[in-house]
Amino acid sequence: MNQYIFSVIILLVFVVIHIIMKNILNIKKKNGYTHVNKIHKRLEQVLIVLALVLLFLIGFVFNYRLEPHYFVGIISILFAFRAFMEWKFEKVSRQYILSILATSALLVIFIGIELFFI
């Protein structure tokens, strides 16, 4: 139960910082998510397939227990990839800053649960 409280607190802090950063840096709100280019879309699809295969291997082939925070770790990797692609191809929009912020929040949750609650 403590890990859920920890996650909620980190997510609340993330939301507050996200709103503040969005207003300070004057980053426009996006409706939905659009990929930067076709390479970004394909590589993200490959990452998702690899993540699903990895989770399958961990859970069913190697018979390790699948913890819910493993999904948080995978989502943080996807956000890190998005941040890199946005930084590389759309620096002007500064959307990558918010993606880095989301990646950081998810990594804090993943590492915090892994170190202190497992």
UniProtKB/TrEMBL annotation:
Annotated protein name in UniProt: DUF4181 domain-containing protein
Top-rank lineage group of the source organism: Bacteria
InterPro entries: DUF4181
TM stretches of this protein: 6-25, 46-62, 68-84, 96-117
Record's keyword annotation contains Membrane: yes
Key words, A-Z: Membrane, Transmembrane, Transmembrane helix
